[in-house]
Task: inverse folding
């Protein structure tokens, strides 16, 4: 049987120090992904410098997908990275995320055909984040000070198995720690690029995947990541507009968007 190839996609925008810490956490994995793709939504040259320098000694293939800064276009840059990916299984995180050393191993282990997954997220406080920026990555446990939801910091496959049936009924998902089969993303045409500005593009993708019969698989206490603190980037105007688009998708039952991943696939997927 062909081995499953995992592509790790890291989205970023003008946060080179955070991205460096994220890449360092990828280099500390028990299992490396087939490749790492930095999906760059128009950052300045210092982000490209971080990627280029890190790639010189990285124990995995590291690629940089960039487009011009024309405002918040997270869906578009993720689509471009997905189109460029070689893996069968896409794990996506943000460029302000630190990974538990078994993060990739867990996502690979729990991957299941016909399902997309979301792992656990731990929120780090401002002081701890500043220390990590200054001094580098440190081991984080449920007892580390300045974490905001410490129960999520407990990685335990036994506990994950025990709470799995309970967690499955709670549809909580976050784009900073999700995983999909690439074929499932192609089938729904990836992210809808009609969403502009902050908010809802990941919820729209999830809604269309579910409409297409793909099951949601919550991973509690495994595939743990740590979200470094940053000021909120929520934009009320774009969020309200995007929320209206999301409501239409949820009520219509549609599975594919018109302006999505096939903008970058050669040849584009033909849907009969």
Result:
């Amino acid at each position: 049987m062909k081995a499953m190839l995992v592509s790790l996609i890291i989205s970023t925008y003008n946060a080179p120090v955070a991205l460096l810490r994220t890449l360092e956490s990828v280099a500390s994995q028990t299992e490396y992904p087939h490749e790492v793709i930095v999906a760059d939504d128009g950052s300045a040259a210092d982000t490209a410098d971080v990627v280029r320098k890190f790639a010189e000694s990285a124990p995995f293939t590291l690629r940089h997908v960039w487009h011009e800064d024309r405002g918040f276009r997270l869906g578009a840059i993720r689509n471009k990275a997905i189109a460029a990916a070689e893996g069968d299984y896409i794990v996506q995180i943000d460029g302000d995320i630190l990974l538990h050393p078994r993060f990739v191993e867990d996502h690979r282990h729990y991957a299941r055909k016909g399902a997309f997954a979301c792992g656990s997220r731990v929120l780090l406080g401002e002081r701890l984040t500043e220390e990590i920026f200054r001094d580098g990555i440190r081991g984080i446990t449920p007892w580390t000070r300045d974490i905001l939801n410490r129960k999520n910091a407990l990685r335990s496959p036994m506990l994950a198995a025990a709470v799995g049936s309970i967690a499955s009924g709670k549809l909580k998902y976050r784009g900073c720690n999700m995983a999909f089969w690439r074929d499932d993303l192609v089938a729904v045409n990836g992210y809808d690029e009609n969403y502009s500005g902050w908010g809802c593009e990941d919820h729209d993708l999830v809604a269309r995947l579910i409409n297409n019969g793909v099951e949601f698989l919550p991973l509690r206490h495994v595939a743990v990541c740590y979200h470094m603190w940053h000021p909120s980037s929520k934009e009320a105007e774009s969020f309200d507009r995007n929320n209206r688009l999301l409501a239409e998708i949820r009520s219509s039952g549609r599975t594919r968007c018109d302006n999505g991943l096939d903008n970058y696939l050669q040849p584009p997927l033909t849907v009969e």
Notes: The chain has a mean pLDDT of 92. The domain at 6-263 is CATH 3.90.550.10 (Spore Coat Polysaccharide Biosynthesis Protein SpsA; Chain A).
